[in-house]
Amino acid sequence: MRRGRATFTSRFGFYMAAAGSAIGLGTFWRFPYIAGANGGGGFVFLYVFAVAIIGLSVLVAELMLGKVTRFNVVGALSYRSWVGKSKGWRFFGILGLAASFVILSYYTIISGWVIHFVVQAAAGKFTRSDMSSGIVIDQLMAKTILQILLVSVHLIVTMSIVGRGVQDGIEKSSRVFMPLLFLIVLFLLGHSMFLPGAREALRFMFYPDFSRLSTMGLIEAVGHALFSLSLGFGAMVAYGSYLRPEVHLPSEAVFVSVIDTILSLCAGMVIFPIVFTANVAPNAGPGLLFKTLPVIFGQFAMGYWVALAFFVCLYFAALSSSISLFEGLVAYFMDEKKLTRSGATILVSGISLVLAVFTVASETSVINVTIAGRTMLEVADQYLINWTLPVVALGVSLYTGFKVPDDIRRQEFIDEANPAAVKLYPTWVAMVRWFIPALIIFAMAIQVSWFIF
Ligand code: PHE
After folding, report:
1. Three-point CA angle 16, 17, 18, nearest 5°
2. Which three-class secondary structure state does DSSP give residue 370?
3. pLDDT tens digit string along 4-42?
4. 87, 78 in Cβ contact below 8 A?
């Protein structure tokens, strides 16, 4: 184990940082729109199942790779004493880092929109009588410079936190933002549950009507489970590398998965009652949050506060996830390219800015331009999440299952004080060696066959 790597100061600090990574735009923006598009209950059920079966096991694997090697994802996947000089496994790490940059190119744009929405909410825009569907987002899309400015503000905030390091930046900020986020979600839940549409919304979300589910829904559930737990990017490998030696992985992974799933369900329980009360379609696609919701706030008694709380909460979620996306990349540039933390942070921000400017400029409107009936955003998002993440997860699973020595895995997995971990160990090994790879290869094969035929 190498010396001198920063660590989280406490379990609570790690929990907040890791939960901050997991709970993000994927939770509040992506989950409701794909659950809505896939018919609700059946999809929600599959998603929870995918988190419990695949997400949890891969999360243990990613944290383990980081914790044992004390490296970023690429370093961990080419750890000398496990693979000798062979470089093949690195490919999965590099793919994960590439995925991080692709995601950053739109994650930062959407985070910028959220900043704009916070400002508009504070100015009372959403409760004015002349609000109409999509007006705020459409006006924003028409302003390229404003969007780039907003992205820059978001990048500066992210940079200033990541640049301060693991303890003073990432951990400290998460300790403040995440509890605040939980409080805001409680307030919003309290509001949504008393709306007239609440019953219908709960039925839509929790009644598993599998007839509305397609095979694509199955693949999307797996992809979203990985995305939502920040798996397949290297972010969780980096966070794992800052864990202290005495920490036990299964309990940390269970905490992160459970809290992330609870928050995703809460996000649905906040958003769908609003959608059903206003009688709008739950399958509005990526625009659900930015086009549909804003029109509705004006109809509520406390609309001003609900809108403001909602978008502030969304920003905390976007920020803490952006931080971990950054950190996965910063850890790589620090470990492998020997940059300083400030150098690496500036480099990652610079590349993100270029990517975002390119995206904004090339598609004046990522939400409105469509290819074969789907928006640009959906297309980019889908390729990345349903293709790239499963491939990285496949690499990580096989590597952990076959390359990491059994005594090390055991030592990291099993906690003598916890008999459940002793019992679960063989199951987890079988999952990462056989079950998860088989399932992912199967899902890829289906997609490839659709692609060809
Ligand atoms: N899990 C985050 C979300 O749900 C996305 C993310 C992926 C964040 C990878 C960091 C790293 O929005």
Report:
1. 95
2. strand
3. 799 999 999 999 999 999 999 999 999 998 999 898 999
4. yes
Helix (H), strand (E), coil (C) string for 264-299: HHHHHHHHHHHHHHCCCCCCCHHHHCCCHHHHHHHH
What ligand 1 atom has the least distance to the C-alpha of 231? Answer: 9
Instruction: Please report which confidence band the pLDDT of residue 271 belongs to, taking 50, 70 and 90 as the band edges.
Output: very high
- 5 belongs to a structural domain: no
If you take atom 8 of ligand 1, which residue's CA is the nearest one? 321
Q: Is the pTM of this model over 0.90?
A: yes
* Residue 119 belongs to some domain of the structure: yes
Domain count, the chain: 1
Please give the C-alpha separations between residue 13 and each of 161, 172, 184, 261, 320, in angstroms, as whole numbers: 15, 8, 20, 19, 13
Domain containing 115 equals: 11-452
Q: Give pLDDT tens digits for 186-212.
A: 999 999 999 999 999 999 999 988 888
Distances from the Cα of 212 to the Cα of 4, 43, 215, 268, angstroms: 53, 9, 10, 18
Low-confidence winner among 34-48, 158-172, 289-303, 436-450 (lowest mean pLDDT): 289-303
Q: Confidence band (pLDDT; 50, 70, 90) for 368?
A: low
Q: Flag whether pLDDT at 258 surpasses 70.
A: yes
165 ligand 1 Cβ < 6 A: no
- Name 374's bridge partners: 371
Which 3 state secondary structure label does DSSP give 371?
strand
Angle at 297 between CA 292 and CA 300, to 5 degrees: 140
Can you state the angle between helices 198-206 and 172-193, rounded to 10 degrees?
A: 120
Q: Could you tell me the distance, in angstroms and rounded to a whole number, from the CA of residue 69 to the centre of ligand 1? A: 23
Is 233 close to ligand 1, i.e. is its CB under 6 Å away? yes
Nearest alpha carbon, ligand 1 atom 9: 230
Taking the CA of residue 233 as reference, the ligand 1 atom at the shortest distance is: 9
Tell how far the Cα of 84 is from the centroid of ligand 1, in angstroms.
32
Give the residue with greater pLDDT, 17 vs 292.
17
User: Residue 143: inside a domain, yes or no?
Assistant: yes
* Residue 18 burial (C-beta neighbours within 10 Å; 0-12, 13-18, 19+): buried
C-alpha angle 348-79-397 in degrees, rounded to nearest 5? 85
Say which CATH number the domain at 401 has: 1.10.4160
Q: Is 24 in the pocket of ligand 1 (CB under 6 A)?
A: yes
In a domain, 48, yes or no: yes
pLDDT class of 372 with cuts at 50, 70, 90: low
